[in-house]
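RECORD TYPE: protein structure
NAME: TetR/AcrR family transcriptional regulator
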Amino acid sequence: MTRELPIAGQPPAERADAARNRQKIIEVAARMIATHGAENLSLDEVAREANVGVGTVYRRFGDRSGLIYALIDAGEREFQAAFLTGPPPAGPGAPPAERIRAFLHTLIDRKVSQRELFLQLEAGPPKARFGGPYRLHHTHLATLLAQVRPEADARFLADALLAPINACLISHQQSERGMTADAIKAGMDDLLRLL
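PREDICTED:
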């Protein structure tokens, strides 16, 4: 039997049983959300349904926000690959203004498609909302904005453009105002033209 050696700077390889438990927990949580809604997700119930100890769920995911983030992680990985290394207009090769628009439109689509999960994630502590993916989204957007408007505070503008792309506002726009994802993207285009 061969054993993989750890790579410096990388987390240790996940044990096979831990990987199975992680996948089982994610599958159970996804099923429970599909049946009962994300707002009713309980880590205790997930543990019970997955036949693992509650401690396993908490050690693995930390809290409810950690589990919800794990559920949206695959989509986030695809999204990041698209804007970091994918084809234009989101990826390298397109002019910065086109990349900004494509990035924001795709982010709106992500929030719409997994609205319930993002509502729960964004209701968590600021670290959950403004850490991880937000930090990367912000850095990417600020870098592009600095190319388009070098005299402006690109970091502030990135925050300002990301602010309306939150699940709570998008949920309100869709349920109370009847806006479609295309209408929300058109509004974002109007905002971009003001820049």
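COMMENT: Confidence is low (pLDDT under 50) at residues 1-7.
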